Prior knowledge:
This protein folds into 2 domains: 306 residues, Adenylosuccinate Synthetase, subunit A, domain 1 (Adenylosuccinate Synthetase, Chain A, domain 1, 3-Layer(aba) Sandwich), CATH 3.40.440.10; 91 residues, Adenylosuccinate Synthetase, subunit A, domain 2 (Orthogonal Bundle). Helices cover 33% and strands 21% of the residues. The structure holds inosinic acid. The site of inosinic acid has 21 residues, from helix 4 and strand 10.
Amino acid sequence: xxxxxxxxxxxxxxxxxxxxxxxxxxxxxxxxxxxxxxxxxxxxxxxxxxxxxxxxxxxxxxxxxxxxxxxxxxxxxxxxxxxxxxxxxxxxxxxxxxxxxxxxxxxxxxxxxxxxxxxxxxxxxxxxxxxxxxxxxxxxxxxxxxxxxxxxxxxxxxxxxxxxxxxxxxxxxxxxxxxxxxxxxxxxxxxxxxxxxxxxxxxxxxxxxxxxxxxxxxxxxxxxxxxxxxxxxxxxxxxxxxxxxxxxxxxxxxxxxxxxxxxxxxxxxxxxxxxxxxxxxxxxxxxxxxxxxxxxxxxxxxxxxxxxxxxxxxxxxxxxxxxxxxxxxxxxxxxxxxxxxxxxxxxxxxxxxxxxxxxxxxxxxxxxxxxxxxxxxxxxxxxxxxxxxxxxxxxxxxxxxxxx
Length: 404
Ligand code: IMP
């Protein structure tokens, strides 16, 4: 398997976890490079539902080593919760199966508190992501290596002082974390995670030199990129192929670059959404696709595919392949619509494909799909200049047509 990167081509929630899960069957290493527990990957294995926020989806495959890179921000409470629930479900999470970069930053209670106090105008997940990246830039961040070594007290104090002062001024009466309690909690987490934390650069370099099969798992989506997304309605990290290298700190040639496209669009939080469906039509799509945030449970805003946006995302990332997810959700919802052009008044011009009914998961080849679905896929391949890698036809691991 060539080094493969999987990136959401929309606003996140495209179903990347499932694509990575399928690909990781043939991978030695599955790697995350950005974001934190704001992501939520839902994977169904044999009727069991796993929601992973930080740990790469490859953890569910015994053949995979999983690595969380230095560009990520780690909420250690959330990470330990994931480790414990996976172990409870019988999944091995030994230190040699989950490697944590010693330079990844820690999300602290102050970050979560400040995010919850200030994040409403963007509609953040409230997981402390933005404040953690901000403290990294302020040079008062705590890294996993500091946590492991117990050398984080002065920066934790600096965070407590800075966020305490700002919060007391801006949000009088807000309740703030207790320093001693947080120090002890982080100290205990550092001890528990000690054997997982290391310099991951040699691991990545060795894997590259040996040409080992690797999957790089993006979080969020192209339009949520801090620099290239719909600022200010974005996350705080670089979510694109270009951003992956920054998060890893190790050069990789991603021979296969997969842009994951949900067969319709969704977005959580505020910000522009030209193809959004309001009222009953949006609600039908939300119910049918169970479009509620995997991290926050918030209802996702729903709408049609936006080819204008997708073309830009594919060109930016030079995606070689497209993976289409949740096409099955559109069954029974009438004609399939795709916005192909923005008109001078700002409204979108749509093309339509014939709607379909019934269960797509029975189809064992693309030819067996209803005509409208084939038309939609042909349009995407042609206009995006990318080959179809995979078509997901239902939520299960087996509901997938792996094409290329
Ligand atoms: P933050 O990443 O929590 O700071 O949130 C910033 C914006 O990114 C908000 O609109 C969030 O809803 C959105 N966001 C963050 N992570 C995800 C994700 O995994 N899926 C979809 N949207 C996300």
